[in-house]
């Protein structure tokens, strides 16, 4: 019984770290999806293509991950259109995308 206690502690720690990693990954994907919705609303097609490339190159190809990106994109696109916000210039939006890309890479465990 006492030998299984350290194993249980290790498993609980691993589960906690995995959940934290998954949460960070979902947040980073959501941020990129939000920017994608803005880029779509502002007809910045080159930037939307770039974000798709970032997703394909960075995160696992899993349905739930794609759904997080799509839902964030959809919500952002609708919010942007209904709120009457002014489109950011392409350079500013590209800078925001670069920051989101780095957050996504870190959350996905990509170091190079």
Automatic annotation (TrEMBL):
Cleavable signal peptide: 1-20
Keyword field: Signal
Protein name per UniProt: Uncharacterized protein
Organism field: Azonexus hydrophilus
Lineage per the UniProt record: Bacteria, Pseudomonadati, Pseudomonadota, Betaproteobacteria, Rhodocyclales
